[in-house]
Amino acid sequence: MRHRRKRSWPSAVLAASALSLALLSGGRAPAATPPHIDIEEFRYAPPLVTIAPGTTVTWTNHDEETHTVTASGGTFASAGLEGGESFAQTFATPGTYTYFCSLHPYMRATVVVE
Questions:
Q1: Cα(106)–Cα(54) distance, integer angstroms
Q2: Is the Cβ–Cβ distance between 46 and 108 less than 8 Å?
Q3: What superfamily in CATH does domain 31-113 come from?
Q4: H-state helical runs in the chain
């Protein structure tokens, strides 16, 4: 007696749908949510994000202290962010963008646009 392995029809449909979306979007599946970076405990979390050109990244300060998001090359900078405040930056051009807190320069992180 031969046993046949059952195929999961919903899984096959989901896989085909994901492949179709990836092909339609130039090989990349669309991001589920825009990138978000938390500022907490005097760190940017996550410290490294990789995004596609045209993506907007949002930072939110969860510390009681004021922090900034300041590009090392001067291409962007936030005002001082109090606890609960956010800053958003859209990255149009591919490249590596390192940034830091101008009030606490040891706080550093990176956005890679490719």
A1: 28
A2: no
A3: Cupredoxins -  blue copper proteins (2.60.40.420)
A4: 9-24
Residue 17 has a pLDDT of 44
The pTM is what? Answer: 0.72
Tokens of 114: 């490719």
Mapped onto helix, strand or coil, the DSSP state of residue 25 is coil
Give Cα 85 distance to the centre of its chain. 18
Low-confidence residues of the chain: pLDDT under 50: 1-31
At 33 the pLDDT is 77
Are the beta carbons of 30 and 52 closer than 8 angstroms?
no
- Backbone dihedral region for residue 44 (phi beyond 0: left; psi -120 to 50: alpha; all else: beta): beta
